[in-house]
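Loading example: each entry is read as three labelled lines plus one structure line.
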Amino acid sequence: MVKNLSKEGSDKIDWDTEDELEIQEIQDAIFSSCRDLRTTGQHALSGDGEASSSSVPCRLSKFIQQFVVMGFSEESIAKAIEQNGENSDLVLDALLTFKVIEDSPEEQPTASPQLDPSICSDDSYSEYNENFLDDVYEEESWSSDSDNCICYLKDESSSLSENEQTLLSLANMGYPVEEVSIAMEICGKEASLAELTDFICAAQMSRAEDPYLPEDVKPKLKHISNDSGGYKKRKMFNQLCKGKKQRTIFDEDPISLPKPMIGFGVPTVSGPAMVRRTLPKQAVGPPFFYYENVALAPKGVWDRIASHLYDIEPEFVDSKYFCAAARKRGYIHNLPVEGRFPLLPLPPRTINEALPLSKRWWPSWDTREHLNCLQTAIGSARLTDRIRKAVEDVDGVPPMRVQKYVLEQCRKWNLVWVGRNKVAPLEPDEVEMLLGFPKNHTRGGGISRTDRYKSLGNSFQVDTVAYHLSVLKDLYPEGINVLSLFSGIGGAEVALYRLGIPLKNVVSVEKSEVNRNIVRSWRENTNQRGNLIDFDDVQQLNGDCLEQLIDSFGGFDLVIGGSPCNNLAGSNRVSRDGLEGKESSLFFEYPRILDLVKNIMCGER
DNA sequence: CCTAGGATGATTCAGGCA
DNA sequence: TGCCTGAATCATCCTAGG
């Protein structure tokens, strides 16, 4: 069933051949277009943070949205962005500072009521917001460059009446406009936001418990069915303000990790039958999309990620079912889940099978069969020396205390036995093999050993991703056009290639030059003939740029990528700041770009 | 400047047990 | 139910040495 693409195979493929010069010209034109756009004030907030009344791109909207869902007013956000640019950390700091000032009665005796502390889950945010904006601003005051992109302009909102501002604030928090209106009528115009949120939540709770309530209404109320309403929201906001390392906490049932972590199924475990899932209408392609990140992110992160990707339930899969190393990851995608097949041959799934030379030295008391997650750093030589001495000092089987210490360190650093009493970290080519990359994929071309580990540690496990992508093979026998965001060392491209799906046009976005070179070199080594256009910054990809790309080869079939996990990963002791972290906030670029691609391809732009 | 080594916990979740 | 323990975790920053 599976055909791994051989050299001969790839030569037989009927490629869309294009003169290299022509490709270069297209590429140059697109690059210059993007640069031009970047410097000609297309962004509502330019470098100096000046607000513009022209159309506001989705990126900015999403950037603002992340603060709106925390309960900050759009005025404060606009002010904070003006002062700090689009740096999440700085903007958040500024917002918290505003909040402290506004909460101080001595300094601000007449604080605006819309800044009343409150917070909500943002699952229903967009929907309610759209309703709200439809109702309130039928033809003015805001602009949007897509149906899914709602943008706020500072000047207009500040010209609203107090009532309208209250309405706007509550709608931004996710409360339905109709319910806000009713609450304002019943509680009176003098009512504080706290009173209004309490009233709305009480009403929602009472309806949620109503056995005669239609089922299609109940899910929307799920997030308030198990809490104490506005009080809890305000309490959460207060927690939010306590420190910088706050997170959005969700009222509704948080997304939990499945056990076993096999998603919709893996080829090596006879788990529950493949489910036929129903995707929300707006999530259905084209294009197909596939998003990845660490499964063990801080609480609430996956809820937020899903809320920006059509509320699709993430598929959590541990790659230990595909190879000898664990890799717990979440994937949100709109691919079919039936008819998947794995890459063949199936890779070895135990340490002994994957590293047969280590078998000879493996002590019986080290019962590991799988390696832990392959990370970006390795154990030091000094550590392996300490372990050697600890084990050498005893005759025969070491005492439990030593065993425990050694095993703990081996698990922590993924050490393997390479000699009598001798452990060592994995070699880079072993990591390549475990992750499903060809040998020497990251070797040479100016990359250091340390950076090889780093690039590999940040990559996909190819067999896992390929299994999910395998359904594309029958759908695109002639090959596909791929938009690969946060490409890294090309895990997605390698997966598609190994599935035998020809890569016609690949637009790859990757910050690291070393990684871009690895992908380019791999393509040359494998004699691929499609086009590779690469960018170094996702933020360069604006609507006009994407439009030109899509015009030049007729649209993307797949938008794939895993955004930075730095601020989500448990290993990060310094800046595990969640989705608002410096790097991880680039996640918001993914739905922004996906929306743009969808809209351009639907001809709605 | 580049590279490698070393020191640096917190946040989750699961399972056991009183 | 609450507490404890164990386990896992796509990392960051500083420094020394070439």
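Residues 256-257, 259, 296-299, 377, 380-383, 448-451, 570, 572-574, 576 of chain A lie near DNA strand B (CB under 10 Å from a C1').
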